[in-house]
Amino acid sequence: MIELFWEEFGLLRKMTGSVTANEWNMSDEATQAHERIDTLRYVIHDCSGVSDFIVPQDEIDFIAIRASVALRQNPRIKIAFVSSHSIVRKLIDTFNQMDRSLHRCCRFDTLEEARQFVGNPVRLT
Length: 125
Known about the structure:
By secondary structure, the chain is of the alpha/beta class. It has one domain: Transcription Regulator spoIIAA (2-Layer Sandwich), CATH 3.30.750.24. It is about 35% helix and about 30% strand. It has a 5-stranded mixed sheet, with helices on both faces. Strand 1 (about 1-5) and strand 2 form a beta hairpin. Helix 1 (about 20-30) runs parallel beside helix 2 and helix 2 (about 55-70) crosses helix 3 (about 85-95). The protein is globular, with a radius of gyration of 13 Å. About 30% of the residues are buried.
């Protein structure tokens, strides 16, 4: 399951359970079509509650490319992932190695660390 929590200056994307490529793509489409996408200061992808990702490599590539294009109009956005899952590491590596992206994704072990990175240490309850 993927839930979107629009905060004052950014977006918390919380993923739990088993996440499929289709779910991820639907969530991306909703996020990237949102009127605030070009003014967000951060996106935190909290994948700490994910038990499994069912996302093949070609979908990882597509997700990374689509995100880099969608964020071109927002050079100040910070992107953080909370996870140690191998799929998340592959996605971060793919995104960070693309020449077309102005951004870099960072990985953290906790939501608190990710919030400190994006400059918004508020904890959600």
